[in-house]
Amino acid sequence: MEENQQHQQETDVQDETVSKLEYDKIVAQLEEVKAKLPKELSEEEKALQAKQQELWQKEVSLELKSAGLDMFDGVTVK
Questions:
Q1: Is the Cβ–Cβ distance between 48 and 41 less than 8 Å?
Q2: How far, in Å, CA of 24 to CA of 45, rounded?
Q3: Distance, CA of 42 to chain centre
Q4: Which helix (H) or strand (E) holds 69?
Q5: What string of pLDDT tens digits covers the 78 residues of the chain?
């Protein structure tokens, strides 16, 4: 009976293990998926984007004023 139980435990352990080749494939797939995820921006990149947005809004505002359409300044389109 003990032999049967020990054999069952060994079989269970074997079922749970994966070969090095399978492991490498899974790791490669994981790295591929990680590469596709959007990267979190650094504080410097966030500040740069905010500055770019601010400059864009100023440019739009100046263009509207020069075209006599300053009443539309501050209107946002979604």
A1: no
A2: 34
A3: 13
A4: none
A5: 566 676 666 666 555 677 888 999 999 999 999 999 988 889 999 999 999 999 999 999 999 999 998 888 877 776
